[in-house]
Design a protein that fits this description.
This protein is α/β, with parallel strands linked by helices. It contains seven helices and twelve strands. Strands 6-5-4-7-8-9 form a six-stranded mixed β-sheet, sandwiched between helices. Strand 5 and strand 6 form a beta hairpin. The longest helix has 17 residues. About 5% of the residues have low confidence.
Amino acid sequence: KFVRGLTAEDFAVYEDGVQQAVAFFGATAVPLDLAILLDTSASMTDKIDTVQQAAVGFAQTLREGDRLIVVDIKDATKVLHPLDAAPAAAEAAILSTVPRGGTALYNGLYLTLKEMVKQRRANDEVRRQAIAVLSDGEDTASLIGFDDVMAVAKEAGISIYTITLRSGYAIRNATQGGARRFSQSEFSMKALAQETGARAFFPTEIGELAGVYGSIADELSHLYSIGYSSKNPRRDGAYRRVIVRVAAKPGAQVRTRAGYQSPRPERVTTSTH
């Protein structure tokens, strides 16, 4: 249940254990840049119609001023619709997907994160950024590894909502005491979501997708935005852990990005003759 009515004074922000002074606070709607990543590999053949309709429904939740990019993930990553505020064209791009090939999930996430960071740097406007990625299995075709994706995700500061379609057989096997094998994809998707302050979903039925997308849409429309200038002046490229607390509401649980990558020292180049 979202806690409404909080002010900047209700929040306490700590970086590596040192409390910071809140310099920016927003409780009103902030324009959103959203990337929808769809795994359309061959394994999605029997699910593609439902996946498309659920993704279209998700796209239709965007508000005026929000922007959307649609990315297709197979053996290769392809941007089907560039980041803009044309929802009808984005919906047409979603409906144009055709399942085939393997799954280069990490490649798709890596390239999308890079593209969204590029868009942010080219725009001075304060906008929220998020990625919603849907896959039904292990990565089978990426050249990029999970550690590389996680490093970029930490640096980018973009919320990554992950939806991993789980096998009903695997769930039944686990609940009946069977040995359920370790799933690298489930671990990776859960870790990416937790590190970036988002949520990981593991629906067991394709029909649950609409509800999952609805939950993500509802959350993205009810977020607080908090910013601060770090008291740590070092530009060492180190990862800094961030903790946010709400003292005014005992028992309130805060979900936020786990930290950020500090700026790296600027390179000084010299030339000799």
